[in-house]
Sequence to fold (125 residues):
Amino acid sequence: MQLFPWRGADRDCEPRVYTMTSLIFGASLSPTSAIYVLNRNAETNSDEYSNAELAVKRNHHVNNLIHSTVSVSEATKLIDDDTIVHARGDFDIRRWATDALKLKESLSTESSADAATLSLHKTQI
Fold:
């Protein structure tokens, strides 16, 4: 929770304290705060959505999730569960990207994104 005092032009009165309804990025430790809140929200919903909790904790960074599944049905369930879990915390998750054509066709226009090519090379040390 981010709080800020504000007294306006009246410097003689005590400041009123306001609570931010959105996370201010650029403030110190914003990514850490975002990750903490996302993880806490996932924990709150872990009994019902344990796979989403694991995906959030292991594969989320602020507003990005990079996750692989073995099937389209598993990916569809994860997207649905992840979206529900985040919605319960008042987070609007959207812009999913996939290389699975069947899954991409099932995503709504608002929730899909253009996929980027990501190449990971193993380097032996």
User: Anything to note?
Assistant: The radius of gyration is 19 Å. The longest strand covers residues 3-6.
